[in-house]
Design brief:
This protein is mainly alpha-helical. It contains 13 helices and nine strands. The longest helix is centred in the N-terminal third of the chain and has 55 residues, at 84-138. The chain starts with 5 loop residues before the first helix and ends with a helix.
Length: 486
């Protein structure tokens, strides 16, 4: 009987599971361009816009009902149904209720539109993803990267652009034939954040942006202070009985108009800051991108990635110093770069974490803490509502003088501030607890990924979710799990 070497069989099985030494063909495309080029996308956009208009129409109807409720209140005041000493209180209650109603519906619209967008785009995305997978397999491409993802692929040689082939598969214009080179891309990474932080121009731009933000903030604070002063004056005149119901309505409308202008200014301020940031920083970003492209071409590199998308990297494939050299920066890691990588892997960290008992235990502890904090917060809200109702009842019965009403109002405001402060503390406490529980787990996983990468002679490891397509042979998740004892 023939004898088999069991050790040899095991070695063969492990070799078949993962072969990092083999050359790995890479390609890229712009997924966003493909989505925009699909005829189905235009139809989906039209359907989404019709759905959004339908939701907005419902909101406009709600606004009409809100205005009717406000006018009803004013009529009740003029008819003497509501006593003058309760008028201001009832107006504020109605206004708060209406503002909350509007805010809730705006959030609801946003959520519904986003869900509808996902529903409409999902089949389109799946069709493109299937085409990418089929072309990649036909061309023996192990990995396809998406250049439409912000700050992921910083440079890519057009010879490795797979988009024309996918366009041809989908029947889209701009296919241009088979443009994909039959070769292996040499890939590297850079730390663009670190490069930017060393540029003197960035510090100058940051200083100018800070000055611009301060100027806008001061203007907004001045408008808010003026509005607050006008509102306090209005309340004092109401309390002294100097305004009729009609005059109160007109004055309130003026104040609300100013409040609306303040809100518009705040929205415009955000846009102005964003525009200013682009104006100051975009030329610097363009300069850095040009330096990355120049360094890549000089060293015969076909693709450059941002370091932040990597789960593991070897310093020998860090192009940052050569990019810095193009920008006139001194080297920070002399002699570490040794050329591009052709061997890399991918990991599914979500699946790995989901299979770890430590994560399950951490999730349980976080859930216990969340319930405890939510109960404390709800108790505070319940007590506030109870105190608020008690004060309102006293006001309606005429048991509180104007000075006492002011005192009770200040007390309620303080309690409301305590609730807001607690909510912030709760957020911070939960974040601290998550860091304490999960960081050691993440550290273990990262160490396992690094150890497997070194054992398999990989220069880079990508997160699976960051790739448009990856050959199953690139997946080292099973090896990482084994390293973790899972």
């Amino acid at each position: 009987m023939r004898k088999f070497n069991s050790l040899g069989i095991l070695s063969f099985i492990l070799l078949c599971c993962y072969q990092p030494a083999m050359a790995q063909r890479s390609a890229f495309l712009n997924f966003g361009n493909l989505i925009a080029a699909m005829p189905e996308t235009k139809m989906a956009d039209a359907e989404l816009e019709a759905y959004r208009k339908q939701l907005v129409a419902t909101g406009e109807k709600m606004m009409v009902e809100i205005n009717e409720a406000y006018h009803t209140l004013l009529n009740d005041v003029q008819a003497g149904i509501i006593p003058p000493n309760q008028q201001q209180q009832r107006q504020e209650e109605l206004q708060q209720q209406q503002q909350q109603q509007i805010s809730n519906y705006e959030k609801e619209i946003s959520q519904k539109v986003e869900l509808k967008r996902e529903e409409l785009l999902k089949p389109i995305q799946e069709r493109i993803e299937n085409a990418v997978r089929d072309v990649a397999r036909e061309k023996r491409v192990a990995c396809v990267f998406d250049t439409s993802v912000f700050n992921a692929v910083l440079y890519a040689d057009k010879s490795f652009d797979m988009e024309p082939l996918v366009r041809a598969r989908l029947g889209l214009p701009g296919s241009g034939g088979n443009s994909l080179i039959d070769g292996t891309a040499s890939i590297v990474f850079v730390n663009s954040t670190e490069i930017l932080s060393r540029l003197p121009l960035i510090k100058q731009a940051d200083s100018q942006l800070q000055t611009f933000q301060t100027q806008l903030q001061q203007k907004g604070e001045s408008m808010a202070a003026e509005l607050e002063q006008e509102y306090l004056s209005f309340l004092q005149r109401v309390e002294r009985g100097e305004l009729s119901s009609e005059q109160q309505y007109l004055e309130k409308a003026k104040i609300e108009a100013k409040q609306s202008r303040l809100g518009e200014f705040e929205q415009d301020r955000v846009k102005q800051i964003a525009d200013k940031r682009t104006e100051l920083l975009q030329p610097i970003y363009n300069q850095v991108n040009a330096a990355i492209a120049a360094a890549a071409k000089k060293t015969n590199i076909q693709m450059v990635f941002e370091r932040s998308i990597l789960l593991y990297f070897d310093e020998s494939v860090d192009l940052s110093d050569l990019v810095g050299e193009q920008l006139g920066l001194p080297a920070s890691r002399v002699g570490t770069f040794r050329g591009g990588a052709s061997a890399y892997g991918a990991v599914n960290p979500t699946a790995i974490l989901a299979s770890m008992p430590d994560v399950e235990q951490a999730d349980f502890q976080i859930n216990v803490l969340v319930k405890e904090l939510q109960k404390r917060g709800q108790d505070m809200v319940d007590q506030f509502q109870q105190d608020y109702r008690a004060v309102m009842q006293k006001v309606e019965r005429g048991e509180l003088s104007p000075a006492k009403q002011e005192e009770e109002s200040a007390r309620l405001d303080a309690k409301q501030s305590e609730i807001i402060s607690f909510e912030q503390q709760m957020t911070n406490q939960l974040q601290d607890a998550r860091n304490k529980l999960y960081e050691p787990i993440f550290k273990r996983v990262n160490e396992a990924v690094a150890n497997v990468a070194k054992e398999q002679n990989l220069s880079m490891v990508f997160e699976m979710g960051a790739l448009l397509y990856s050959d199953p042979a690139l997946d080292i998740s099973a090896l990482v799990k084994r390293k973790l004892g899972i």
